């Protein structure tokens, strides 16, 4: 097999893992104002992802590193052309991570409200902008003969890209809400299921528009097949949630996001960054990849360490598989809540 094509698939795999895993992290963060009736509820929601959110985030770091090593031309064009959008994502992730660590350092309601707001914004901004970025990559952007992006940030905010951003935003939101219903109990679990029903219905409509738009603009049989499977998985997740089968609903939603990401990479293939005004300036798998020696070394490293990473990730989720309830919140948090509401 051509190693450049293999690494195109491996990069796709890393982004699938990132969007599936950090996707529900984003959804939990965005759901705070919708499901968190008091601070204890919000603590429960944050605790559902507390042991894993930082581990989930490392997937984008590994994916970026793989992109840099395997496709340096693609990496250079992407990170220079999409600089402001990616900087906003990075700042949002930093703010979100800091907020997780600092919100519980003081008991004041204003202190926690401030950091809760940063968690919400720090979750919503990447959820939207990642969809905008990938939609633009698939659609094609203005590249010159040197493979430099010649547009602006506002050129990236076109109609197709905005629909792509709304699609990832709604999918991640619903994914997170389903995860909350899977990991909590009692009234919070019931409210999460009801919210997932409503957000899931909206996500189905918006995702159908985006996938249909992509199929018309960048049709390929492989993309069409993957898009249909993604749509079926999304509807199955919504039905499973209606029936109270949170595990199946979460699994189908994870499959939806995975298939959607793979379908976008399939629509992109064999390009890695198409040039919309002049196809001759496009970056392809062939002209953007590293040398054969570099790809060979990377393949051996991936063959050794990638299985270890997957085993460790699976073990972590197994250890923290139990539901989180209000009874798990320390007594002082409940006392603080009674003081605030008294």
From TrEMBL:
<dbReference type="GO" id="GO:0009055">
    <property type="term" value="F:electron transfer activity"/>
</dbReference>
<feature type="transmembrane region" description="Helical">
    <location>
        <begin position="157"/>
        <end position="183"/>
    </location>
</feature>
<keyword id="KW-0560">Oxidoreductase</keyword>
<feature type="transmembrane region" description="Helical">
    <location>
        <begin position="297"/>
        <end position="320"/>
    </location>
</feature>
<keyword id="KW-0813">Transport</keyword>
<keyword id="KW-0812">Transmembrane</keyword>
<keyword id="KW-0472">Membrane</keyword>
<feature type="transmembrane region" description="Helical">
    <location>
        <begin position="82"/>
        <end position="102"/>
    </location>
</feature>
<feature type="transmembrane region" description="Helical">
    <location>
        <begin position="247"/>
        <end position="269"/>
    </location>
</feature>
<keyword id="KW-1003">Cell membrane</keyword>
<feature type="transmembrane region" description="Helical">
    <location>
        <begin position="6"/>
        <end position="35"/>
    </location>
</feature>
<protein>
    <submittedName>
        <fullName>Cytochrome d ubiquinol oxidase subunit II</fullName>
        <ecNumber>1.10.3.-</ecNumber>
    </submittedName>
</protein>
<feature type="transmembrane region" description="Helical">
    <location>
        <begin position="114"/>
        <end position="137"/>
    </location>
</feature>
<dbReference type="Pfam" id="PF02322">
    <property type="entry name" value="Cyt_bd_oxida_II"/>
</dbReference>
<dbReference type="GO" id="GO:0016682">
    <property type="term" value="F:oxidoreductase activity, acting on diphenols and related substances as donors, oxygen as acceptor"/>
</dbReference>
<dbReference type="GO" id="GO:0070069">
    <property type="term" value="C:cytochrome complex"/>
</dbReference>
<dbReference type="GO" id="GO:0046872">
    <property type="term" value="F:metal ion binding"/>
</dbReference>
<keyword id="KW-0249">Electron transport</keyword>
<dbReference type="GO" id="GO:0005886">
    <property type="term" value="C:plasma membrane"/>
</dbReference>
<comment type="similarity">
    <text>Belongs to the cytochrome ubiquinol oxidase subunit 2 family.</text>
</comment>
<dbReference type="InterPro" id="IPR003317">
    <property type="entry name" value="Cyt-d_oxidase_su2"/>
</dbReference>
<feature type="transmembrane region" description="Helical">
    <location>
        <begin position="222"/>
        <end position="240"/>
    </location>
</feature>
<feature type="transmembrane region" description="Helical">
    <location>
        <begin position="195"/>
        <end position="216"/>
    </location>
</feature>
<dbReference type="GO" id="GO:0019646">
    <property type="term" value="P:aerobic electron transport chain"/>
</dbReference>
<keyword id="KW-1133">Transmembrane helix</keyword>
<keyword id="KW-0349">Heme</keyword>
<keyword id="KW-0479">Metal-binding</keyword>
<keyword id="KW-0408">Iron</keyword>
